[in-house]
Design a protein that fits this description.
mainly alpha; three-stranded antiparallel β-sheet; 179 residues
Length: 179
């Protein structure tokens, strides 16, 4: 899978001055959402007491993922400003679902402003979420649950651990006790 670095994600987010756009892109990355899952969220799907997001995934399968404290604070501000009626993220008319093509455009333009030369697409944020969790030591089974994969084989694609991560693993010879 194509993955964005943490630095590229930060740069994209810093190029999203619009609160709604920033919330949408932050949520996709920090929760590991598919585009359709983001667009189908309703305000009640944000479960702040438990720091979770309820997601209706593929085939109407419900799962829960992590809610970032940063995103929760942003969403509270967003909610006061935008007052969504039906969908968490609405289009120009109240109660109208935000469009997938508009979301794609928001990300593409932010990536360009961030100086990212390669093609960036929404699903890369989901791949980046899984890869970054794996790099920080989260086990594959947990990542499988967060992504809503039925089969662990689907999640195994993230085992392409980066060279940078591999270089930080202590060599077993270096950890031997010399005594």
């Amino acid at each position: 899978p194509e993955v964005l670095s943490r630095n590229e994600i930060s740069r994209i987010l810093s190029c999203l001055p619009n609160l709604k756009h920033h919330c949408m892109i932050s949520l996709i990355y920090s929760v590991g959402l598919r585009r359709s899952e983001l667009l189908n969220l309703i305000p009640k799907d944000i479960i702040s007491e438990r720091m979770l997001v309820r997601i209706m995934g593929k085939r109407k399968k419900c799962r829960y993922s992590l809610l970032s404290e940063k995103v929760l604070n942003e969403l509270r501000t967003y909610n006061k400003e935008y007052r969504p009626k039906k969908w968490l993220f609405e289009g120009d008319s109240p109660g109208e679902q935000y469009s997938a093509s508009a979301l794609v455009k928001v990300l593409k333009e932010a990536a360009e402003r961030a100086g990212i030369k390669h093609r960036v697409h929404v699903h890369m944020l989901r791949h980046s979420f899984a890869t970054h969790l794996l790099e920080q030591g989260t086990d594959l089974r947990t990542i499988q649950e967060l992504l809503g994969h039925n089969d662990i084989k689907t999640t195994n694609i993230y085992l392409h651990v980066t060279s940078a991560h591999k270089s930080s693993i202590p060599n077993p010879l270096d950890t031997l006790d010399d005594s």
